[in-house]
Amino acid sequence: MVVYNLYIFDRNCSCLFYRQWAKVKECGISPEEERKLLYGMVYSLKSLLSRLSPVSTRDGFIGYSTDKYKLHIYETPTGTKFILNTDHKAGDQQETLQHIYTKI
């Protein structure tokens, strides 16, 4: 499994932590703008999916996958979001993100 990066956001969209291990290509925008876009995308997808889902799920929106990468999300009861980007072949990383939250 390749881990590209890890973001930790508080509930007010402030990036508390960012670490990059592998970057496939430059995106041409500042790191600050990239963080804001990521948070906005996750917020919008979570909102859209909660409205479209026919049933309420306990965990809510936990990520998505493309043919290039997989985005994993773990949200704490206080609204802190742990966002991990990996290669698309990675399995579910909810336990990993929960471990980071509870043990580190």
Automatic annotation (TrEMBL):
Stored InterPro entries: Longin-like_dom_sf (IPR011012), TRAPPC (IPR007233)
Primary location class: endoplasmic reticulum
Gene3D superfamilies in alphabetical order: 3.30.450.70
Pfam families from the UniProt entry: Sybindin
Record carries keyword Transport: yes
Keyword Transport in annotation: yes
A GO term from the CC aspect: TRAPP complex
Record-linked SMART domains: Sybindin
Compartments, as annotated in UniProt: Endoplasmic reticulum; Golgi apparatus, cis-Golgi network
Self-association state and partner proteins as the record states: Part of the multisubunit transport protein particle (TRAPP) complex.
UniProt name for this protein: Trafficking protein particle complex subunit
Organism: Amphimedon queenslandica (Sponge)
